Amino acid sequence: MTRSVLFKKLRPFSQRAGTPLRLVAAEGAAERVTSPRAEPSLPRPSAYVVPHPHLAQAVEDAPRLTKPLTCYIRQRFHDSHRSDLAELIRLCLQIAARSGDDGQTFARILAVLTVINMQLAARMEEDETFLFPMMVSAACPKLTLLIRRSMTEHRALRDRLEELRNLIQHADAPTAAGPDWRALCVGAQDFADDLVAHLHLKDAVLFPRFL
C-alpha cells in the first residue's frame, strides 16, 4: 500500500465510537416530552435535504427544540471533538518520530491538526459560554451578528478539513508507522464525519431559526 485512501466510508455515522447517536437523540426526545415549556414547531427548511446520507441521518436523529438541540450538539459533538483531536495529534507525533524522511509530511499534517484544534476549541467555548445560552433565552440583540461570525468560522474549519484530507490522501504510508498510520487515517475519517455533521446541524438546522 503506497497511498492511503482517506474518508472511504468504513461504517455508518450513527455507529461511531462514543455516545451512540440514537441514545442521545432518545434522551433529547424524553426531555421534549417532559419539559413544561412549550415551543412552537418550526418548519423544516430546504437545507434539511442534504446529499450525504450521514448528514441526513444526523439531522433526523437530532432533537427539534432549541434547548435540547444545543445540549445535544454540546454532548454529542463537542466532547468527542476534544478527545478525537488529542488522539490524532498524539498519533501524528508518534508517526513523525519514527518516520525519518517522512517527518516533514507529518509535520505538515500536525500543523493543520493544531490549527483545527485551536480554531475549533475557541468556537466551541464561545458556543457553550455565550451563543447557546443566548439562543435559549432569545435575549440578545446581537445574536444575528454572533451567528454570522460563527458561520464564517465554520467555513474556515471546512477549509482546514479539506487541507487535512488532501495531505493524508497524498501521503505515502510510512513503513515504520505500523498500525498507527491506519489508526490516524480511520481516526481522521471519524473526526471529519463528526465535524461535518456538527457544522451542518448548526448552519442548516439551528441557525436559520434565528436569522
The total beta strand count reads 0
Biggest sheet details: none
Q: What is Rg?
A: 19 Å
Which range does the strand content fall in?
Answer: under 5%
Report the average pLDDT across residues: 76
The class by helix and strand makeup works out as mainly alpha
- Write down the CATH class of the domain at 82-210: Mainly Alpha
Could you say which overall geometry the principal axes of the C-alpha atoms support?
Answer: elongated
Give the % helix.
55-70%
Q: Architecture of the domain at 82-210, according to CATH? A: Up-down Bundle
Low-confidence stretches: 1-51
> Distance between the terminal alpha carbons, to the nearest Å?
48 Å
Structure, described:
This protein has 6 helices and no strands. With 211 residues, it is mainly alpha-helical. It has a domain of 129 residues: Up-down Bundle (de novo design (two linked rop proteins)). The relative contact order is 0.18. The N terminus is likely disordered.
Features:
mainly alpha; 211 residues; de novo design (two linked rop proteins)
Topology:
Blueprint: H1 21-34, H2 53-61, H3 66-98, H4 103-137, H5 143-169, H6 179-206
Helix pairs in contact: 1-3, 2-6, 3-4, 3-6, 4-5, 5-6
